[in-house]
Amino acid sequence: NAGVTQTPKFRILKIGQSMTLQCAQDMNHNYMYWYRQDPGMGLKLIYYSVGAGITDKGEVPNGYNVSRSTTEDFPLRLELAAPSQTSVYFCASSYSIGVPWDGYTFGSGTRLTVV
Amino acid sequence: GQQVMQIPQYQHVQEGEDFTTYCNSSTTLSNIQWYKQRPGGHPVFLIQLVKSGEVKKQKRLTFQFGEAKKNSSLHITATQTTDVGTYFCAVSGGGADGLTFGKGTHLIIQP
Question: If we measure between CA atoms, which residue out of A95, A113, A112, A94 comes closest to residue A104?
Answer without folding.
Answer: A94
